[in-house]
Design a protein that fits this description.
Elements: H1 2-19, E1 25-30, H2 38-43, H3 63-75, E2 78-81, H4 94-97, H5 105-115, E3 124-129, H6 132-137, H7 143-163, E4 168-172, H8 181-186, H9 189-213, E5 218-222, H10 224-233, H11 235-242, E6 248-252, H12 257-265, H13 267-279, H14 290-299, H15 301-314, E7 326-328, H16 336-352
Parallel strand pairs: 1-2, 1-3, 3-4, 4-5, 6-7
Length: 356
């Protein structure tokens, strides 16, 4: 009888270990690659649906939502997303950097702290994927200083979270921004390639320093740079592994670039249209500066791309009818199938680290 009870107890404990939740909540910080509709809920202008999907900067759910859904379905773990399209890691001075970026990594974290003031942060997985907009926006000639600032802010974010009890982190590096249709359109591929590599090298070093400094913390990193380059070179390998049918790794599904460029050239009319559109949004405060937010959208490669694509769609342009065969939805953002694949890869990375 004792032996039978021992076997039953062991079976129960082993089962509890196998199905024990790895953490109690997931918190995402990021930009348009992770935004699940946050920016649209604020502005109600960009990105429009259609052609975008319900406020996402893609034609479907983001990778973050796939990851969140996986852990909710498996463990009933809640997730919250503080990512905003157009967000940057660091604050950029509009007077010197020639663009406005009011949403930053620090702002997202402060917003989280406000909402989670009295919650236990020791069993939360914090996810950070940020930096692309800092480099797409900013034409700072000293790229060494620029990448230092961006990576240092990421380190600051992790350290700040740890001071509040955080112990588990998932950090994604940047893809090679030079391979995007945007880089080919604007002829800045060489600069973006160097920046992408420099950023990732410094991020690796920063994470290693944090690992050495905080041995009780757990860091899982996903090498998006290597994964994305390998996928572009060997799409069939990933098609077989994830059951997809990607064929076009170069061109965006959306073919409205020429029309978008014509629209973009008419900045005066665009600004007037945006100001009028925002004026019609009764949710905006009386002191809301429509001129400033219009300038923000039009000066951001990330947001202007989405806004102009929406305008092109209204004018009769349509995206391709085989989006599932494309890597890129527009000139900067991936398709829904790529988001789905990325979500699976992230889950695999977490499981391999014992967090899944």
């Amino acid at each position: 009888m004792i032996k039978k009870f021992t076997i039953m107890l062991c079976t129960l404990l082993c089962s509890m270990n196998i199905f024990a939740e790895p953490f109690k909540q997931i918190i995402f910080f990021g930009d348009s690659l992770s935004d699940n509709g946050n920016l649209y809920q604020v502005l109600k202008i960009v990105p429009k649906s259609p052609p975008y999907f319900n406020g996402r900067f893609s034609n479907g759910m983001t990778w973050a939502e796939h990851v969140g859904k996986h852990y909710y379905d498996k463990y009933f773990i809640d997730y919250q997303n503080y990512s905003y399209g157009g967000a940057t890691a660091i604050f950029h001075n509009p007077l010197t950097d020639n663009f406005i970026a009011p949403i930053t990594l620090e702002g997202e974290i402060n917003s989280y702290f406000l909402h989670a003031l009295f919650t236990d942060k020791t069993k939360v997985l914090y996810v950070i994927w940020m930096g692309a907009n800092d480099y797409l926006y900013d034409q700072e000639p000293n790229i060494n200083a620029l990448t230092d600032s961006v990576v240092n802010k990421t380190s600051w974010a992790i350290t700040t979270l740890m001071q509040q009890g955080a112990r588990e982190f998932l950090i994604l590096n940047l893809p090679d921004l030079a391979v995007t249709p945007y880089a080919r359109q604007h002829g800045n591929g060489e600069r973006l390639h160097i920046i992408s590599q420099m950023h990732n090298q410094k991020l690796d070093a920063a994470i290693q320093n944090l690992i050495n400094k905080y041995p009780n913390a757990q860091f899982v990193t996903v090498n998006i740079y290597n994964i994305f380059n390998d996928l572009l070179a060997n799409p069939e390998k990933y098609n077989q592994q994830y059951g997809q049918h990607i064929k076009d790794t170069i061109d965006a599904c959306w073919k409205g670039t020429v029309f978008q460029n014509k629209l973009a050239a008419d900045k005066i009319n665009l600004t007037a249209e945006l100001r009028s559109a925002f004026a019609d949004k009764h949710t905006m405060g009386k002191n809301f500066d429509t001129q400033a937010i219009s300038n923000y959208i039009l000066s951001s490669p990330d947001l202007s791309q989405a806004y102009l694509l929406g305008k092109a769609y209204q004018a009769g342009m349509v995206p391709c009818d085989n989006a599932s065969e494309h890597v890129f939805w527009d000139d900067l953002h991936p398709t829904a199938v790529l988001h789905q694949m990325l979500g699976s890869m992230v889950v695999e990375s977490l499981e391999n680290a014992g967090l899944g």
